[in-house]
Amino acid sequence: MTRQNGQDPLFLIEDLHVSVEGKEILKGVDLSINRGEVHALMGPNGSGKSTLANALMGHPRYQVTQGRVLFKGEDIIGLTPDKRARRGLFLAFQYPTSIPGVTMVNFLRASLKAVRGSDVPVREFRTILKETMDLLKMDESFARRYVNDGFSGGEKKRAEVLQLGILRPELAVMDETDSGLDIDALRTVAEGITALMGPDMGALIITHYQRILNYIKPEFVHVLFSGRIVKSGGPELSEALEAKGYEWITEEFGALEGVS
After folding, report:
1. CATH fold of 11-94+170-253, please?
2. Buried (b) or exposed (e) across 216-235, using 16+ Cβ within 10 A?
3. Domain extents for the chain?
4. Strand, coil or helix: what is 149?
5. pLDDT tens figures, 27-76
6. How far apart are CA 6 and CA 32, in angstroms?
7. What distance, in Å, lies between the first and last C-alpha atoms of the chain?
């Protein structure tokens, strides 16, 4: 357990084992994140990265069989996804879902109401929305479009970042936000995420490639391999992975066991 200023971590994962349809995917993950820290989680395809993201948010398909996840000192394993969101946990999806007929503005206001547990006055919400879109350099017309309906890959990820800015969670888990983005879209999305970071928010950036870390600078980098975090370090670790690939991880820690 890594303590900050004498306090326990904002987010603590201890010996987490997760199974999907009876098959064990995560085999003892340990990780701690303090407020204001940006952590990157990297690993080859099939290492269990998206399994970890979904399990942390409480997806019912992912069964926690051992270990615990503490958020602000509370074990959240038994909480439903909506209750985790109300506690201040946020997940940006690798493949955001389209919701035809529902505008972004209505979706965002309903999301904020759900997280707060009370209605959000129209004037207050409009102020929050405008300030957030200005910060992210987004045109106001974006909020009038249907959620992810007809969006490009970059627009879908920008919509996720807009949700992050409206909800202002205490911990953001970004599951392969760089997936499917071209260079320009990646830079735009990464700049938006960076603009929202601050001393009160922790972040876990889950990625396969180092490229998003050129824009979002993590203090800590971890390698997930075959269901376990096998190596941790600073930004230089992601640079080593970019230069050498994951083959040296495979050679050092054994053959990949086929997790996904």
Report:
1. Rossmann fold (3.40.50)
2. bebebbbbbbbbbbbbeeee
3. 11-94+170-253
4. coil
5. 999 999 999 999 999 998 889 999 999 999 999 999 999 999 999 999 99
6. 14
7. 27
When computed from its CA atoms, the radius of gyration of the chain, rounded to whole angstroms, is: 18
**The token pair that represents 165 in the structure block:** 């800015």
Contacting residues for 133 by C-beta, under 8 A, at least 6 apart: 139, 140, 142, 143, 162
How is residue 84 written in tokens? 């985790």
Cβ–Cβ under 8 Å, residues 217 and 40: no
pLDDT at 6: 52
> Residue 142 is which amino acid?
F
Encoding tokens for residue 218?
Answer: 């993590």
Strands 74-75, 89-92: pairing kind: unpaired
221 has which bridge partners? 40, 233
The angle at the Cα of 34, spanning 204 to 241, to the nearest 5 degrees, equals 40
Most confident range, picked from 61-65, 173-177, 253-257? 61-65
CB distance 135 to 165 below 8 Å: yes
